[in-house]
Write a structure and sequence with these properties.
The complex is a heterodimer of chains A (728) and B (511). Chain A is an alpha+beta fold and 728 residues long. Chain A has three domains: 150 residues, Sandwich (Immunoglobulin-like); 170 residues, no CATH class; 250 residues, no CATH class. Helix content of chain A is 15%, strand content 24%. In chain A, a hairpin with a 5-residue loop joins strand 3 and strand 4. Chain A is elongated and about 95 Å long. Chain B has 511 residues and is mostly beta strands. Chain B contains five helices and 30 strands. In chain B, the strands form six sheets. Chain B has a six-stranded mixed beta sheet with strand order 10-9-12-17-14-15, with no helix packed on it. In chain B, strands 21-20-23-28-25-26 form a six-stranded mixed beta sheet, with no helix packed on it. In chain B, a hairpin with a 4-residue loop joins strand 20 and strand 21. Classes of the chains: A alpha+beta (728), B mainly beta (511). At the A-B interface, helix 1, helix 13, strand 18 and strand 31 of A face helix 1, strand 20 and strand 21 of B.
Chain lengths: 728, 511
């Protein structure tokens, strides 16, 4: 036992020696055993040990060994802890021992008797946590019957002068003012996540200021205006490092400016709304929170988007307030001056999930919402007024459109009873015993600086799992099965598409996203395609190069060339009476749900184009209600409209009736046939199997991040992502 | 290297040195007299330890048998990466008494089982168990031949209802011991389970009512169904691994807070030695009866003959790494001891994907008597069949979701009993995909039928594997083929029992 204790003491010394030069540059541990039951606060609140140099730390280790209770003493010994808040005993403070999960709560007299495990590995430390104060610790270098931890209430007034801290990134983690300096794994994970990219996503900037992804040459071809140095009022642009851009028009700033705003013009002063983009996409613009323009994002706010110092400044939530830092996320930036320059200008204040983080560099205050889905609702739930045009108040009585509804999709779904957003999107980080890089199996090295060894699975990765992470969450989101039936010369394929993975709808979030089941058939597994003859067809939102309705001239399609296809669908009458989210569930009628049934009628290929543009087809176009042109060699996402399949999307329209528009243009949500959690959809398709003895049914579920028309307009290259592919 | 890493490494070095100096082990203890295995009592008496071990060998000094090697030093002991030398065994594995056939008809085996509480001074109670069948933990091993009818008369002497589920066996649904659509056997009541054993293999029985508690407290035993064509071995032994005292009345899920090495019990007791004769052939039937803990075992020359459902199509020889038995899993190994002891080591295993904490430790050491060379492997009737091809479609999907933190364990977004049964047409071959989207591993167990493993994350098995309990790792996809040939409504669930009792269970309707 003596040998073990010496080992603990020696390793504690090593940790503190390491801490002195690295993450733990805070004052070194106390050299003396705390003699007085009342812990005196030194210059750095949070570290209640007397300051000492490293030599003292060595002495302290020796003291620990010699002053520990005899080996025969029980492991658990009672210690009566008194917690005060601003010098007044406080009830309901949480007391917890480092390396342990059991919690005690102080009574009305501010005291509670706790069982302290003196055999626990690492430092023997008690913490006191209270929602109005930074967590503090008391080191029990030897057994004492009592302990007092004096907490100080933090200022509840948000400090507008505070400057959000740099998160650090690999290769540039700086000193301990950057979270990534110590939390390297979390930092690596977050840097690769979508949260980091939230403010510099080029598509975001294109939609905000009316640009495209063109270079100078292609910009001219598109008729845009190339500016090497756009006006400052248009912001730094995507990625922030190359503001030169092609301005083609449109965008939030121009479209919310009365009378419009020419491409490339600084309309930040004339725009009547900034769309609230920055409140979630660039929430750390210093100064006033909320209502800021995205063009104001620069530096940390632009480069790092949703970063450590934003999320961990969320003191409270108000789900009825506007999204993001405009009110829903109650940001509290510290006001108190720092007691030490090593801790920055202001005294650190960090909100997090744990009661036992007493490192003064953190200034930690525990909040439950870090383990709750409501935190994510801060941005992943967004109802929006129309910025351009009016909203049909009969259809949307509160005057707002349900743009992002991920949180309520989850809340109303089955997984809300047992799995939070964090359960899936912040999985356990198996390589760590805590967020401060303590590895599993090293509880001896736990301390205030190194953190406490947490149970397996308790330390959560900051990868923010999603479609782009590995494994992609798209892989497991859906289930597709096909049931072919071959009778006479017809192959009938019944397809079932089901949301089996996420607790929210698929697709979710940004309504530009869509999911398409594309059904086909071949003769043999690798044989020629069988012609589709009927059944459910993919709607216009699956993409086309031109669209004609019954009564239009179907001999002319814009830009058609030899080899292009024209797919014809019928609208036999009823609308789909699907069960969607919100008002698309129980309020709207089938017609109001906005998805007419469309059936495949057939297709013909353009065989000749006359000089006047009149088309000749390889076979007469079948009769129908809608015809879609699909160019044979068109750029951008595949034009799928009219093919056998079924489309899943929330469809926003603008004042001109254009569909699948960015949400700043939206005046209506005309349909929402996404798959809710657990929900499935059946579609039926027929193919001509004449002469084919072994037809094979195939289905491919693809995920598209942006509509085809917008991708073409802005020069985006969103490759469709295959989620599921089956054949039978 | 960071400071703590350096300290960590130094710490382990010192710790290892401490162990080297401080640990010796005096060996000894009791060990099985294998000849006594047939001399058992069939009396149902909760006060009687049902172990077949009633004698001690003359030489119980483990340290004197064959010499014990530092496992890291090799010499045939093990290739495990262990930090400590493997000391001689200190206690010896005892084997559960076999059930006595009370029916003279050679085609019928009739067994009487009584489920009852153990007396506090019972040896099994000291090992952490509270309940037992026929007063022994594990319960009597039931051994019969393919084609025999098994009648089991269960009397419930517990204070609460119970059932028996015949894990892995193809039984009529009304004999399956589940309470879906059926009532359990009330306290003081009796019930006869009757069915015909239709395939060989290593199966087990346990309650399927209040399962987490009743299994943890000791209600389980093994069923061995022998095939006529299998070769004779010198010994056919049962090794049931368990970690008692996992169940908590507050519903705390032990595994998420556990750290370190589980307190494995072997055949109901703390034992780490197995007396063997050099040169003999042993067929070892292993079962992980733990509620939550995974058994990752390895030893030099590991040769797995069978999984849950009888012989594989070819043996799996696994020197490369441990075989993992999830809760409910079985494996059959062929042990061919020579003169040197063989250390069967257990690897720490985290079902939440954490980096294993610590080094491999000894589960049991085969301690040989004699100097004969190891026997050649027996000629097992492996059929050499290839795994069925994995088709490009799926009929049924099971998705595991949930977490301890959220408090819910789901299959397809549903929590038992609020589920919609999954349909499988009677007589059809059904392609099943099991996806694990939660952040814990889950052993998928299907009642009433078995599954063939088609692929795991797209990789087909090296041998044709028929299982009824198949582990699904985090983010893993396991594809299975099921012949839905047993009509009824069957449970399908995670066999981590707190997960199952927490709702990770559904029903497959075969009709």
């Amino acid at each position: 036992m003596i040998t073990q204790r010496l080992l603990v003491a020696a390793t504690a010394l090593l940790v503190w020696t390491s801490a002195a030069v690295g993450c733990g540059s805070e004052p070194s541990p106390g050299g003396d055993t705390v003699e007085d039951d009342t812990v005196e606060l030194d210059a750095v609140e949070g570290d209640t040990r007397p300051e000492a140099d490293s030599a003292d730390a060595g002495d302290a280790s020796a003291d620990v060994d010699t002053q520990m209770p005899p080996d025969t003493s029980p492991a658990l010994r009672p210690v009566t802890v008194t917690v005060t808040l601003d010098e007044v005993p406080v009830a309901d403070a949480i007391v917890i021992q480092g390396n342990h999960t059991r919690q005690w709560r102080t009574g009305t007299d501010g005291t509670v008797t706790v069982d302290v495990d003196f055999t626990t590995p690492g430092d023997i430390v008690l913490h006191a946590s209270h929602p109005e104060a930074r967590t503090l610790a008391d080191w029990l270098f030897s057994y004492r019957e009592t302990s007092t931890i004096a907490l100080t209430r933090f200022s509840s007034v948000d400090n507008i002068d505070y400057r959000f801290q740099h998160p650090g990134e690999p290769g540039d983690r700086g000193d301990t003012s950057r979270c990534g300096h110590c939390h390297t794994t979390f930092n690596d994970q977050w840097v690769a996540s979508a949260h980091r990219e939230s403010a510099r996503n080029p598509w975001l900037w294109d939609v905000y200021r009316g640009t495209s992804r063109d270079d100078a040459a292609s910009c001219a071809d598109r008729g845009g205006i190339w500016l090497d140095s756009p006006p400052a009022g248009l912001g730094a642009g995507g990625n922030g490092d190359n503001p030169a851009s092609c301005f083609i028009g449109g965008g939030v700033l121009a479209e919310t400016t009365p009378g419009g705003c020419p491409p490339g013009t600084d309309c930040s002063e004339t725009a009547e709304s900034f769309g609230g983009c920055a409140d979630c996409h660039a929430p750390s613009i210093d100064g006033q929170l909320g209502g800021r323009g995205l063009h104001e994002a620069s530096g940390i706010a632009l480069d790092y988007g949703v970063h450590c110092d934003v999320c961990h400044k969320v003191e409270s939530l108000d789900l009825d307030a506007p999204a993001g830092v405009a009110g829903r996320l109650g940001i509290l930036r510290p006001s108190e001056p720092s007691p030490s320059l090593t801790l920055g200008v202001h005294k650190p204040l960090t909100f997090g999930p744990h009661h036992d983080v007493s490192n003064p560099r953190m200034g930690n205050v525990q909040r439950d919402h870090f383990r709750q889905a409501a935190l994510c609702a801060g941005c992943h739930e967004h109802n929006q007024e129309a910025f351009a045009g009016g909203i049909d108040l009969q259809r949307w009585p509160d005057g707002k459109l349900p743009i992002h509804s991920t949180y309520t999709e989850w809340l109303e779904g089955p997984l809300s009873s047992g799995a939070t957003c964090q359960s899936c999107h912040m999985p356990p980080e198996p390589t760590l015993a805590n967020g401060a890089e303590l590895p599993p199996g090293a509880p001896d090295f736990a301390s205030t600086t190194a953190g406490w060894s947490r149970p397996p699975g308790d330390t959560k990765a900051h990868t923010f799992q999603g479609p782009k992470t590995k494994p992609s969450m798209l892989r497991d989101a859906a289930f597709v099965t096909v049931s072919p039936e071959h009778v006479a010369n017809t192959l009938t394929v019944t397809a079932w598409t089901q949301n089996v993975g996420p607790g929210h709808a698929i697709p979710t979030g940004e309504p530009m996203r869509a999911m398409f089941l594309v059904v086909s058939a071949t003769c043999g597994s690798d044989g020629p395609a069988l012609a589709a003859t009927g059944g459910d067809a993919l709607a216009d939102i699956a993409g086309h190069d031109d669209m004609k309705l019954a009564g239009d001239d179907w001999t002319r399609f814009a830009g058609a060339q030899v080899g292009d296809l024209v797919r014809v669908v019928t609208r036999p009458g009823p609308y789909r009476d699907y069960v969607g989210h919100g008002r698309f569930g129980s309020v709207f009628s089938a017609v109001e749900k906005g998805v007419p049934v469309e059936h495949v009628a057939g297709q013909s290929r353009v065989s000749a184009v006359a000089t006047d543009g009149t088309l000749t087809f390889d076979a007469p176009l079948p009769p129908g209600d809608v015809a879609y042109l699909a160019r044979a060699a068109a750029p951008g996402p595949e034009a799928l409209a009219g093919r056998p399949g079924i489309a899943f999307a929330k469809v926003l329209t603008n004042a001109t009736g254009q569909r699948m528009v960015p949400h700043h243009e939206a005046v209506d949500v005309v349909s929402d046939m996404r798959l809710l959690p657990g929900q499935g959809a059946t579609s039926t398709h027929t193919f001509d199997a004449t002469g084919c003895a072994n037809p094979v049914a195939k289905a491919r579920l693809v995920y598209r991040r942006a509509p085809r028309w917008l991708a073409l307009e802005r020069g985006w290259q969103p490759a469709d992502i295959t989620m599921v592919e089956v054949s039978r | 290297m960071k400071g703590w890493q350096q300290a960590h490494r130094r710490g382990w070095l010192v710790a290892a040195a401490f162990v080297l100096l401080g640990c010796g082990g005096d060996g000894g203890g009791a060990q099985i007299d294998t000849d006594a295995a047939d001399d058992v009592s069939a009396e149902v008496d909760v006060d009687v330890a049902g172990s077949s071990d009633t004698s001690l060998p003359a030489d119980t000094g483990g340290g004197g048998k064959g010499g014990f090697l530092d496992a890291a030093g090799g010499d045939g002991a093990t290739d495990a990466d262990v930090a400590e030398p493997v000391a001689p065994p200190s206690s010896w594995v005892r084997f559960p008494a076999e059930a006595v056939d009370l029916d003279p008809d050679p085609d019928v085996t009739r067994v009487a089982l009584q489920a009852a509480q153990l007396s506090a001074d019972h040896p099994a109670a000291e090992a952490g168990f509270r309940y037992a069948y026929n007063g022994q933990v594990p319960g009597p091993t039931i051994r019969l031949k393919v084609g025999e009818r098994l009648d089991v008369d269960l009397s419930n002497a517990l204070a609460s209802p119970t059932t028996i589920h015949w894990h892995g066996m193809h039984v009529p649904v009304e004999m399956d011991g589940t309470t879906w659509q059926r009532a359990p056997i009330a306290a003081g009541e009796s019930f006869r389970y009757t069915f015909t054993a239709d395939r060989p293999g290593t199966f087990w029985y346990h309650p399927h009512f209040d399962t987490e508690q009743q299994v943890d407290l000791g209600l389980y035993g093994m069923v061995i169904v022998e095939a006529p064509a299998e070769p004779a071995v010198d010994r056919d032994i049962v090794l049931i691994f368990d970690t008692p005292s996992e169940w908590h009345p507050e519903g705390e899920h032990h595994h998420t807070v556990a750290s370190g090495w589980p307190q494995w019990r072997v055949n109901g007791a703390e034992a780490d030695g197995l007396d063997v004769v050099a040169g003999e052939r042993i067929r070892a039937r292993l079962l992980n009866a733990s509620n939550t803990e995974y058994l990752a075992l390895e030893h030099l020359g590991l040769r797995q003959l069978a999984g849950d459902q009888g012989l594989y199509s070819a043996p799996v020889e696994s020197d490369a790494g441990p075989i993992v038995l999830a809760p409910g899993d079985r494996a059959e190994l062929e042990w061919l001891p020579g003169a040197a002891p063989l250390h069967v080591m257990g690897r720490p295993y985290s079902l939440v994907g954490a980096v294993p904490d610590g080094q491999a430790r000894r589960l049991v050491t085969l301690s040989p008597t004699g100097n004969a060379a190891a026997a050649a492997p027996a000629v097992w009737p492996f059929d050499g069949a290839l795994p069925s091809p994995d088709p490009t479609y799926t009929d049924v999907v099971f998705v595991f979701q949930g977490s301890d933190e959220g408090g819910g364990w789901f299959i397809n977004g549903q929590v038992f009993p609020d589920i919609e049964p999954i349909e499988m047409p009677l007589g059809e071959t059904v392609i099943v995909e099991v996806r694990n989207l939660s952040h814990s591993e889950h052993p998928f167990h299907l009642h009433g039928m078995h599954v063939e493993v088609l692929s795991i994350d797209g990789v087909p098995p090296t041998t044709r594997r028929l299982e009824d309990t198949i582990n699904v790792g985090i983010n893993q996809r396991v594809r299975l083929q099921v012949l839905a040939d047993n009509p009824g409504e069957w449970m399908a669930h995670c066999h981590i029992l707190p997960h199952a009792d927490g709702g990770m269970m559904t029903v497959v309707r075969v009709q």
